[in-house]
Amino acid sequence: MIRKSMLALCALTLGVASAASVHHITIINPEWVGTTQLMPGDYTVQIDGDKAIVKKGKNVVDVPAKVETMPTKFPTTSLHTRDANGKNELEEIWIGGTNQKVVLK
Q1: 55: part of which helix (H) or strand (E)?
Q2: CA separation, residue 46 to residues 4, 13, 52, 57 (Å)
Q3: Residues 31-80: pLDDT tens digits?
Q4: What pLDDT does residue 21 have?
Q5: Nearest-CA neighbor of 105 among 75, 78, 65?
Q6: Do 43 and 59 meet the contact criterion of CB atoms below 8 Å apart?
Q7: Is residue 8 over pLDDT 90?
Q8: pLDDT at 43
Q9: Where are the domains positioned within the chain?
Q10: CA angle 82, 84, 86 (to 5 degrees)
């Protein structure tokens, strides 16, 4: 009986962990992710191993990424870009309410 309870608890924990890897972002200005330009709008970002999957409707962009843990939590989700030859490139996503940031490669 205890094993079944532990197994159920582990399954629940895994379900919560995988659900937590999908985040919502809003892009205000056109941003480049890899070779794809994302237009303003609401997107989901799913972390899957060593890649981030950015989705809006049927548009899906896979980009290499890594998750880094920072010493303090971010109060809100924020996007950090850099200027690459006149283009805004999405470089990092700081996940609000967590101490994790997604670094896009």
Answers
A1: strand 51-56
A2: 30, 18, 6, 14
A3: 999 899 999 999 999 999 999 999 999 999 999 999 999 999 999 999 99
A4: 81
A5: 65
A6: no
A7: no
A8: 98
A9: 21-104
A10: 105
Cα–Cα dist 98/39, whole Å = 26
DSSP 28: -
| Contact criterion met (CB below 8 Å) for 70 and 13 | no
DSSP 39: P
Closest CA relative to residue 105, chosen from 34, 24, 8: 34
Which residue stretches of 20-77 are H helix?
A: none
This model's pTM is above 0.90: no
Residue type at position 9 = L
- Kindly tell me the sign of the dihedral angle through the C-alpha atoms of 17, 57, 95, 65: positive
